[in-house]
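Quick one:
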Amino acid sequence: MAHRADVATSVPLPPDVTTTRRPISLKPLAALVPRLRPYAGRLGICAVCLVVAAAVGLAFPMVVRYLLDAAFQHRDRALLDRIAIGLILAFALQGAMNFIQVFLLTGTSERVIAKLREDVFAHLVRLSPSFYTERRTGELTSRLSADLAVLQTLMGSWVSELSRQSIFLIGGIALLTLTHPRLTTTTLAVVPLVVGSAIFFGRRLRRASTGVQDRVADAMGMANESFSQIRSVQSFVREDEETRRFRGLLSGVVSAAIARARMRALLFGIVGFAAFAGVVAVLWQGGLLVLEGVLTPGALVSFLLYAITVAAAVGSLASLFGSYQEAVGAASRVFELLAMEPSVAEPLAPTALRTPVRGALRLDDVHFRYAPDLPEALADVSFSIAPGEVVALVGPSGAGKTTVASLIPRFWDVTSGRITLDGVDIRQLAFADLRGSIGLVPQEPALISGTVRDNIAYARPSASEPDVLAAARAAHAIEFIERLPDGLETLVGERGVKLSGGQRQRIALARVFLKNPALVVLDEATSSLDNESERLVEIAMEELLRGRSTLIIAHRLRTVRRADRVLVLEHGRIVESGTHEQLVVADGVYGRLYRAELRD
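Output:
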């Protein structure tokens, strides 16, 4: 029978571990404001430069009026020369202001978006594994690249252009009114049509842009999946089928993008027509006033330039409103990612582990299910591992062995019951303390696409070369490392593709040696290896387990004879417990599995 604890059969999650969803605005500008505060000085300079440059632009039509009147009415050459020189100097000032403003704003936007991209990445790598069971990595990389690129455009040019065109609109209307109120009324008659079109089409642009970004994320997710499984794709000769799937997804992107382009074209067409129709009306009415002697030609040209400025500002603002609506969809998804809380969270006030960590592990009446609507993967699981003890957990496929391995470092949280390390509920420990005390060797070790040294030192980046070599030697990896072209500096390829399964597993063991944990969890660490590789890994594991608390999860029973105690898991429950010899004689589940393995 399974060992059952005398304590706390169902311990709820401690109060300080519960978390709440962080409120965050999904409006890009509102959500970005706190990130802009450190750059308030630079943005202040940008604002001053923008106002000066816009003021020069607004002064230009008035200067043109005096220039034309000087040339055609007063015929004053000296005044004409002074005005021309003044215009050149004014535009030089405007150019300098534009340079400073663009340079500072672009640099600021690059820094803000880089920090936002870093924050999104840092948040994603802290989300629980359950999050990644529902999301494809290609979709997430699309959020980091394409969606944040939209936000960068919003910051780098949209805000600047919005401010500039707003100044042109307000200043232009004010100067129009001062020049001739009657013509101003004609000029502003088109504004309601432009604003109404912007609002009507802007909402549709937002939905259309969201659809485009979603379809791009789907296509990138599918492409990433195909690349990561390229051997399966090619071994089943599925290249054409994968290309067809990708083509289908791209067709969806194109269709959504065309729908978005149709909305933008309608918006720009209506706004452009309305704006320049207003200019024509002003030109016609102003021409009549010149013929009547009410306006001078210079005043008419000046008014016409202001009218064009106002019309262009209205058109640009309508376009910017459409661009803003397109950006909202992408930005909202980025901030939604930042608002997501991990399903397994660190405690707000963690309990410190006593050092040195002894490695005493205990599971008390653990129940677990992956989702509320799924059956229990584990039920009434209770056992303990004393410091330095080696315990094996065996059972048929699907019994829940790997689930146990995932619960110990809190990749998932128990549904009820509790797990303790050195007597402390692991839900009360900081991740650094808990996971730093555990060495996990999975069936398929995940290597990074760096050098052999990088992969071994991944457990402790500050490790010296003698420490790295000692870990490689202890894992019996030094033999093949010395035969590699560049030794420790040999590149292993993406996911260690340049190394054999046995070599990757020994590097994974070397990594754990370097980490020097108190508790080791071996999750089917040799099940996918050939006999020779398995023999070498077994030798390395003998050294690794010496003096450490160890949980060996195995499907092949010959790998668990070294265990002090064997637990048999079936249908999520521990049904047998004892030594290898005791369980073979008992002729239960373990005995049947053992004899079946001997026959194989």
